[in-house]
Amino acid sequence: MLTSSVTRFDEGSVTGVVLGESVFAAHRPSAPVTLVRERLLGAALFALGHLPFCRCSADNTPSDVPRLLDTGSFVNTATETRVRLPELSVNISPIDSKPGAHQRMKLAMIGFGQAGGKIVDRFVEYDAKNDLGVVKEAIAINTADTDLQGLECVPEDNRVLIGADKVRVKGHGVGADNERGAEVAEADIDILLNKMNDIPVHEVDAFLIVAGLGGGTGSGGSPVLARELGRRYTEPVYGLGVLPAETEGGLYTMNAARSLKTFIDEVDALMLFDNDEWRESGESVAGGYDTINDELVKRYCLMFAAGEVGVGDGVAESVVDSSEIINTLDCGGLASVGFASDTVDLSGQGFISSMFGSDDGGTAGDDAEDVNRITSLTRQAVLGRLTFPCEIDSTKRALVVVSGPAEKLNRKGIESARRWIEDECGTMEVRGGDYPVDSDQVSVTVLLGGITDSDRITEMQEKAVKAKHNIDELRSQDSDDLSEVAKEQDDIDPLF
């Protein structure tokens, strides 16, 4: 039987395998199909990862399709009659596209300001290089023309200059004045919304507005755009804000605090990335930000890409798709992402061991080493360097995505990781699953949503208050000093 052709089909809530003239099917009402323990059938199912999907064209309804049992035989769900595998057959035909029941997240990404534009530019590059299909549309918005010209991957037609006709802007930026950035966005909101009309909204799952919160254009304009998108569209509007490093000064800290307070009220969830956590000592400013942007993009792309499995990838045992991410972020508030990875040795994973697995009937991935690896990486992702530091026990919801070669993605390991996160975060709303990819890296990405406590945010707000008082005092003092300088020259008559 192993020499016969093997094909997989997906139809509605039914997943199955056709081996020669026989069909091995499993009814999947709410959870992905679990691989059976019978060796021959287990080997056939394992081979599916290297074959195209097919669509079942049998006359049976899903409720009539037999349910797969660990014994290697079926029980008809309608009659509870046991039948042997060779007795059931079905006609199938190949299809070109992948099944649509599970799909990765597709985003309309909008980079606002210098930092936001550069990050979205890097998102587009990474997405295309790895053939992810996450970035459905990419737009960059800025008040500085030179920043838009410096982008490489965002299409030129999608680079929008605002404030070009405004006095004290005229294509040169707003000089880290986020009040003016907000004013310019308000004044040119029709230009922005007209550009949003070019987005195929029916093909995207959400909008993602990316901005540096310490500057002027993105810090001030992003909340304005988020508010208008929320009014116009039903799709979620998310924010991805970059917090300035403490060394960037009090003005940028104050800008970030003010923008954060406004931005979080206008988006469905605000994901943060903290430059202070990721800037390495001794790095140049340009080199440091390039490294930071690479780390940011890698983490979020792996999370957003989880879902669809392409030809040559393995069969996900517990599928994660766009709905899981949306549900995790649905509680609103702040969100942070953790990530950890490990290189695995695939040289010993021979064909026979892959097909037949261990003596207890499990596959080669069902062993203690794979379970321990996934659990350990989950701990590193959560307790290590998050995109922004927070108190993890203030998390309302979480999502864990384990990606890597299919034979190393162990269901028991994923369940163990989820239970550990539940205990650490004190929440039962922890989603998760695997994302098989052709790689020698096993990685764990953890999304923490609805965060309510962060020492970093508290400290930033306190420093912003002090910075505001200092700036107000300095401006007042400067104004008085200038007036005194002019009044000292009593022998000179003013013009009017």
Q: What class would the helix/strand composition place it in? A: alpha/beta
Give the tally of structural domains. Answer: 3
Oligomer: single chain
CATH homology superfamily of the largest domain: Tubulin/FtsZ, GTPase domain
Number of helices: 14
**Strands ordered across the widest β-sheet:** 11-10-9-12-13-14-15-18-16-17
How many angstroms separate the termini? Answer: 102 Å
How much strand? 15-25%
Please write the CATH class name of the largest domain.
Answer: Alpha Beta
Largest sheet: 10 strands, mixed
Radius of gyration: 27 Å
Mean pLDDT across the residues is 76
Helix content: 25-40%
- Total number of beta strands: 18
CATH topology of the largest domain: Rossmann fold
Low-confidence stretches: 1-15, 18-102, 350-362
Which overall shape is indicated by the principal axes computed on the Cα atoms? globular
CATH architecture of the largest domain: 3-Layer(aba) Sandwich
